[in-house]
Specification:
heterodimer, A: 692 residues, alpha+beta, 4 domains, ten-stranded mixed β-sheet, 29 helices, 12 strands, 57% helix, extended, B: 239 residues, alpha/beta, Rossmann fold, four-stranded antiparallel β-sheet, 7 helices, globular, disordered N terminus
Chain lengths: 692, 239
């Protein structure tokens, strides 16, 4: 045994004996450091990201109809997976809840809708039409103000159009449009307006409104769910503006992130972005091209504001801007352009003026809590469905406020969701039946269809007679009234008895996920529920795979590091061995066996690995602990989601620590195998040969 | 058959030829050397560079084997031994002193001396310590046992090497130009020390040198020239 001690003694004393050993040591140290820090970071991110995913929509597991072609893809907003519906949620809820580890089962389905916005001019014209209509007539002052606003918009568009006509190729602007605008701008047109408001309005609506280019389409991804159950199960949910959808009502909560990015006045949103970058991230406009781009867009795209302002507000805005800028300019677009031309010195002041003085004149959001949105979707079979849904407010997930990923989904009640997905709800059946009856629809069998529809003596097809539409007469005096969906309430039973696309399963003990998933599958098989269970990671498509991706990257990087380590250490130890030929030859001459020499080289390298590996582990652990205190800032909003907040506070992971150490020592030993074998081939003659 | 009593042959070499192959050229280093070394001899091998001194020592030292002829070391025919058997023969029967001392730099004086004993794995740590102390005292370095070789002078280092060579109580100590890296006074002291050990321990010493002064201490001198023994004489007064 004492010869082993001797080997260790030699090894320890040799650690710093040569420059080559120091090189090997530094490599080992760096590699261990990298593995400890990298491993802990990936591990921590794995945990925070799964928290983000689990807490925001996914739950711990998702169940869906086993016959589906795809599986749920919760954050993949580009493609809605092809899922078969679960016919009756109430039939699966009970059995799933019977598992002792299941805390809640929340129905969920994802869909994407298109929300189309009318022009500002459409909205003003509608107000004007109402103000002029009997019954909703408004005082003359209101009408005059609305008219003035329309005239102002026309003049803005007319100016644009003329500019366009000048620089564009001949014929790029429809001459008819120019004529129409000239007519709408003419004092004569407005002089005759009051005499025949409806005809004038029709002209404006048909010929002018479409020329005002500020309409927009918004793509909206949403989760259709039992909102009460959702809010209870995902307790990071916070209502920011407005209120929660009342129990049993139809309604939507918009994601705050979507509300800010899609529904807010674009100029204001850009100011917010610059403000955040300048104050929170301490960036400088002068140094950041992205911020400069935002400033440029604000400078150039002032129309949204100009169109919103009626003449009175315009005047106010002009005077605010003149004071702020110390300018005598009277043209609002020019003043706005100058106002938005901000730099690091004046940005904060302008930001204050905007929100303090200009914002009260403007509608900052296209839509406010309480408004109703028309949500339009395409059903699976390609039909368009549209439902009016009241927006009750906005929400965010606590800690994930700034994540576009967590904020990509809005929430919708299950009833509206079913309507939009094209499901037949009891109301729909009733509505269809009454429409069939009222319209006198006949049943046409498939065999008879051709004869019935196109045959000469068909009684099925009638020539429509042109006549004015009279709802009451036409529908036989039936009580045609729009069902006010917003005020309709549903019992929990009604909500749950119906189709859902899937459900999130929330567990009491997340550590038992795999086991519980097996149990749920067993329950489904036993009760013939026809469900499939996948875990949160599988249900979130690419996002869920991200950690696997980072693990793969880390693994790949590790592999490269191993190869590099192997090559460098091998070379260094070979060189060190060559330098020690005399010493090794001497040992062989005085009676050391080959095995002793082999053991000596291996022990020395192992001790190097152990020594510097420990050092690297300690430094790496220190780094992780330090980062655990200071936090690692998320570089962009994707990482915001992966970090489950603005910063990742990594913690030391015993697995990474021990694993890194062991792997490094093993790789070091492998690198030393060849030089160790080489050392055994050193002949004792080489000790005796004279030094030359 | 080992012969241990003084005066009998400890090394016996018969018609040894040693050839080295350098590329396609055969370089003869020894061309038919026969020699007998008796137990307790203090033998000097002399000759110009390239005469085959080192080759002869390598063959006796069991670090190399002959191309032709027989080399018997303590009764073992080295041609028939495996690498491991040769190693063990070196460990138990032979001691080495090198021209450039060849101490393990990271070990202390005492640890260097103890090294062969550890390889032998025969003695307990107490016995080893005693043996090391004894030898360091004999070579006059008992006060330096904790020093590293780098802290010693050349002569002191060679004394450590002598102690290391003798610590296993070998029958033969081989020394290749032991004084070549030392000044003449120190060199002579080293030879005196070797001579003393030769007398006290009855250890056979075989050393190569080209220093006439050193040569004069030898009991027997073998003169090599061109791989052959040119002259061999036992000095008067030996034994």
């Amino acid at each position: 045994m004492s010869w082993i001690l001797l080997l260790l003694r030699i090894s320890f004393r040799n650690i710093f004996s040569s420059f080559l050993n120091v090189i090997v040591g530094v490599i080992i140290l760096a590699a261990t450091f990298f593995f400890v820090v990298g491993g802990s970071l990936v591990n921590s991110m794995d945990k925070t990201m799964s928290k983000s995913i689990i807490d925001s929509v996914a739950g711990h597991a998702q169940v869906y109809e086993a016959s589906s072609k795809d599986k749920p893809a919760l954050f993949d907003n580009w493609q809605i997976p092809d899922l078969d519906p679960i016919p009756d949620f109430s039939k699966i809820k009970g059995p799933l809840l019977s598992d002792p580890n299941v805390k809640a089962v929340v129905p969920e389905g994802i869909n994407t809708a298109i929300v189309v916005y009318g022009n500002t001019i459409d909205q003003i014209l509608e107000k004007l039409r109402k103000a002029e209509s009997p019954g909703t007539r408004q005082p003359k002052a209101v009408i005059d103000s609305l008219k003035a606003h329309v005239r102002q918009m026309i003049s803005v568009v007319q100016t644009d159009m003329e500019k366009h006509n000048k620089i564009g190729a001949a014929g790029s602007v429809d001459p008819q449009s120019i004529q129409d605008l000239q007519r709408a701008a003419s004092p004569a047109f407005w002089a005759g307006f009051d005499a025949d408001p409806l005809n004038h309005l029709e002209f404006l609506e048909n010929k002018i409104a479409y020329l005002v280019p500020d309409s927009d389409q918004i793509f909206l991804s949403y989760v259709g769910t039992d909102l009460d159950a959702f809010a209870k199960s995902f307790d990071r949910l916070q209502v920011v503006d407005g209120q929660m959808v009342p129990s049993g009502h139809r309604g939507m909560l918009l994601s705050k992130y979507v509300y800010e990015t899609m529904f807010k006045l674009k100029s204001a949103h850009r100011l917010d972005q610059i403000h955040e970058a300048v104050t929170e991230k301490r960036q400088k406009i002068a140094k950041n091209p992205d911020l400069q781009d935002l400033v440029r867009q604000n400078r150039q795209q002032t129309r949204e504001i100009v169109l919103q302002l009626d003449p009175l507000s315009s005047q106010k805005a002009v005077s605010i801007l003149q004071t702020t800028l110390g300018s005598k300019e009277t043209d609002l677009p020019k003043l706005l352009a100058a106002f938005f031309d901000t730099d690091d010195s004046n940005f904060e002041a302008r930001y204050k003026v905007f929100y303090g003085q200009l914002a009260p004149l403007l509608e900052l959001y296209r839509m406010k809590p309480g408004d109703t949105l028309t949500i339009k979707t395409y059903t699976k079979s390609g039909y368009v469905e549209a439902v009016n849904v009241r927006i009750y407010g906005t929400f965010q997930f606590k800690g994930l406020e700034k994540s576009s990923m967590a904020g990509s989904l809005s929430l919708m009640d299950l009833m509206s969701f079913r309507d939009l997905y094209g499901y037949v709800t009891p109301e729909k059946i009733a509505e269809t039946k009454s429409l069939e009856k009222e319209a006198g629809v006949k049943f046409v069998s498939r065999d008879q269809a051709e004869a019935d529809l196109f045959g000469g003596s068909s009684s099925t097809v009638e020539q429509a007679k042109q006549k004015p539409i009279n709802d009451a007469a036409e529908l036989g005096g039936a009580k045609v009234k729009r069902v006010d969906l917003a005020s309709q309430t549903y019992t929990q039973d009604q909500i749950e008895k119906g189709v859902v696309m899937g459900a999130a399963v929330i567990l009491k003990d997340p550590a038992q996920l795999k086991q519980t998933m097996k149990e749920i599958q067993a329950i489904s098989d036993k009760d013939n529920l026809g469900l499939k269970v996948i875990d949160w990671q599988e249900s979130t498509g690419f996002v869920g795979q991200f950690v696997n991706l980072t693990k793969l990257v880390l693994f790949f990087a590790s592999f490269i590091i191993f190869v590099v380590m192997l090559v460098i250490i091998n070379n260094a130890v070979v060189m060190a061995t060559l330098q020690r030929i005399r010493e090794i030859g001497t040992l062989r001459a005085i009676g050391a066996r080959r095995f002793f020499v082999l053991a000596m080289v291996l022990t020395e390298t192992m001790v190097l690995g152990w020594f510097f590996g420990t050092l690297g582990s300690v430094l790496g652990s220190g780094m992780v602990i330090l980062l655990g205190h200071t936090g690692l800032a998320a570089p962009n909003d994707w990482f915001y989601f992966f970090f489950s907040g603005p910063k990742l506070f990594p913690w030391l992971n015993a697995g990474s620590l021990v694993g890194a150490f062991i792997v490094v020592v093993i790789v070091t030993c492998i690198s030393a195998l060849y030089p160790a074998w080489m050392a055994t081939r050193v002949s004792p003659i080489q000790a005796i040969a004279a030094e030359d | 058959m080992p012969k241990n009593d003084e005066g009998s042959a400890i090394v016996s070499i018969q018609d040894v030829v040693k050839e080295y192959h350098l590329d396609k050229v055969v370089v003869p280093a020894l061309q038919g050397v026969s020699l007998t070394v008796t137990q307790g001899d203090f033998l000097s091998i002399v000759g110009p560079s390239g005469s085959g001194k080192t080759t002869l020592l390598n063959l006796i030292g069991c670090v190399d084997t002959a191309t032709r002829g027989t080399v018997l070391v303590d009764g073992h025919d080295t041609k028939n031994l495996s690498d491991r058997q040769l190693t063990d023969l070196r460990l138990h029967t032979l001691g080495f002193i090198f021209q450039s001392f060849n101490l393990v730099p990271v070990l202390s004086v005492a640890q260097n001396v103890e090294f062969p004993l550890l390889l032998q794995r025969k003695l307990t740590s107490g016995e080893r310590a005693q043996r090391v102390e004894e030898l360091l005292e004999k070579v006059g370095l008992d006060k330096h046992s904790k020093h590293r070789p780098s802290e010693l002078s050349g002569g002191q280092r060679q004394r450590v090497a002598i102690a290391r060579a003798l610590v296993t109580r070998p029958k033969i100590v081989l020394a290749d130009e032991p004084t070549a890296n030392l000044d003449s006074v120190t060199g002579e002291n080293i030879i005196d020390l070797m001579k003393e050990m030769n007398k006290q321990e009855k250890t056979t010493f075989i050393f190569s040198t080209h220093d006439a002064k050193v040569m004069s201490h030898a009991n027997s001198v073998i003169r090599l020239a061109d791989g052959r023994i040119a002259d061999s004489k036992a000095k008067a007064g030996a034994h």
